[in-house]
């Protein structure tokens, strides 16, 4: 735990949840496409859903591009994360591997929303393709992304936002993302020191930096659970500190999403708050160069 750390975590003993110290919405209704009511809803719940973020005619090429990226990468490339059975779970830095994905980052339905929510120029902190194959896709346990980005990447403030864009239909039954609305107003410190090179295992199954079952039970009792569903092209925007997770996909219906994390250029990474060293660049960009 660093001196002056607003959000201490990865501790040797449990401490009480910490009220959020940062705004949720940093911009104004006049500074982007979202109206005041939408901004208020995001501030309250911690997420919003935007249909038609990627046009229907662009989706086949993007889906084909995911297959191309997966085929072109060396099987041992560290940016490729595999399920225990060997199928691909995630591919990091797709915006650097594909001009088509890079164009998604700069869409008028994407970049201005990120700038408005964060009240500044933004850069890509992390980007990945998430694949949830039919029958074998495994879920992800409840967690706050900011907890990891703070502890392991050195992100100072909760001034980042994620945009998950569906490339296939997200049904309630094929492993689509669940969120605990309103949980972003509280930071939940976690118990347990960060192992060296924790990312080698946490990207497949996260065990460090997750709230305990009692904490999660209280959060759900208070806030409930919402689920992101929708047709291809729909985007889920959610706050960096929102608790979320997903179940496994035992249906024949695969699920794939482009996942973009925008961080404010005024919230650049420092030294990790609770890890031996920073994670690799492909997981946490350390150059806060604004997307233009």
UniProtKB/TrEMBL annotation:
<keyword id="KW-0223">Dioxygenase</keyword>
<comment type="function">
    <text>Involved in the biosynthesis of 5-hydroxyectoine, called compatible solute, which helps organisms to survive extreme osmotic stress by acting as a highly soluble organic osmolyte. Catalyzes the 2-oxoglutarate-dependent selective hydroxylation of L-ectoine to yield (4S,5S)-5-hydroxyectoine.</text>
</comment>
<dbReference type="GO" id="GO:0005506">
    <property type="term" value="F:iron ion binding"/>
</dbReference>
<dbReference type="InterPro" id="IPR012774">
    <property type="entry name" value="EctD"/>
</dbReference>
<keyword id="KW-0560">Oxidoreductase</keyword>
<keyword id="KW-0479">Metal-binding</keyword>
<keyword id="KW-0408">Iron</keyword>
<dbReference type="Pfam" id="PF05721">
    <property type="entry name" value="PhyH"/>
</dbReference>
<comment type="subunit">
    <text>Homodimer.</text>
</comment>
<comment type="similarity">
    <text>Belongs to the PhyH family. EctD subfamily.</text>
</comment>
<dbReference type="InterPro" id="IPR008775">
    <property type="entry name" value="Phytyl_CoA_dOase-like"/>
</dbReference>
<protein>
    <recommendedName>
        <fullName>Ectoine hydroxylase</fullName>
        <ecNumber>1.14.11.55</ecNumber>
    </recommendedName>
</protein>
<dbReference type="GO" id="GO:0016706">
    <property type="term" value="F:2-oxoglutarate-dependent dioxygenase activity"/>
</dbReference>
